[in-house]
Structure prediction request, 401 residues.
Amino acid sequence: MNILQLNAIQEPLEEVIGATNQGIRWQENVLDSDDKEGFVKAEIQSTKGDDITVKCIDSNQDRTVKKDDLQQMNPPKYEMIEDMANMTFLNEASVLHNLRARYSNSLIYTYSGLFCIAVNPYRRLPIYTDSVVAKFKGKRKTEMPPHLFSVADNAYQSMVQDRENQSCLITGESGAGKTENTKKVIMYFAKVAASLGKKSDEESAAASKKGSLEDQIIQANPVLEAYGNAKTTRNNNSSRFGKFIRIHFGPDGKIAGADIETYPALYTFINQGALTVDSINDTEEMKAMDEAFDILGFSNEEKKSCYKCTAAILHMGEMKFKQRGEQAEPDGTTEAESFILARVNSNDFIKSLVKPKIKVGTEVVAQSRTKDQVVNSISAMSKSLYDRVFNWLVKRVNHES
Ligand SMILES: Nc1ncnc2c1ncn2[C@@H]1O[C@H](COP(=O)(O)OP(=O)(O)OP(=O)(O)O)[C@@H](O)[C@H]1O
Prediction:
């Protein structure tokens, strides 16, 4: 079973609604465009060539609009329809109206044929609990209201029955909820297809802090998010990498393992971004990540090395240099910790940055570097180190699960 989370760049929903404010309405009981509402209902009064006069139902105002600015409205029985592929008139206004009407009633999932559309609720809804999981288990799509669990369960049932690999593609704009929904799909499989677990595995897991296979699959997320996510203007916890998660099942339909492939992480020094984020408690997050490391079976030595590399990178971001003539020099505020943490001699490291030795023919000469060149070197080195830490984490997480 494959879960591919793509970080697609699309227009956010508000912008789509905004763009339609130019005047898209429905015919007959039409929705008229409106600055606040995007679409409002309007009734056709008269037609003159391409010009149509409509009465907006809520405001009781008449407006004359172009025929092309109107979109046909569905009969009332289609209000809050669960599968939009069944609409008589499948147009943009109807789709947005339906999604909004459902969203106002806390119904965040809606089908459109084979697709399941999720609108981010930005609050915790009680729709992912164990009892909800139990309700969806083994049920046909048409028996239950739209839900991600239904899509996951259908994929699972098809895999068990047809013995064929199945894939779920989770895509959307930044902040749409891809990461959250990916986690829910994994959680669903972890619950409905938990491995039976060999006794010896359970015993050895109990002896260390290492968790069960399902826990490890779930706990891979806090670790990868800690290193692969960052705050952006759109999302406080934005994944800076795409992921391809493969969950392996045994012949009995139970989870047998998982692995993850990631696409390049984007990275900027933390000191160039926001250091505190309202919705994030760093101490709690650090604790959760440390526990996840334990569940994944990382040794104390491995954890320590990982933290040391991270701290060294953070300190590198604090290093400052000044320019004297053509030559860069440390400006006295250079953080010694980065070298200590990375177990590198401080003087050698600074020298290799400001006056690196290069081979010219058979001779080795020291080359002067400007401040900008040194800053670029540090940036490149930190990115490369961070990338290696992240790739090591992914490899290590895969090794465990
Ligand atoms: N189903 C949901 N229930 C509750 N909150 C949600 C849900 N989906 C998303 N959110 C909230 O929205 C935030 C952004 O969602 P998420 O990180 O999943 O977006 P994303 O599509 O993965 O974004 P990016 O591409 O930037 O990584 C989450 O941190 C969470 O607060």
User: Anything to note?
Assistant: The pocket of adenosine-5'-triphosphate is lined by residues 7, 120-122, 124-125, 172, 174-180, 235, 237-239 (CB under 6 Å). Residues 371-400 form the longest helix (30 residues).
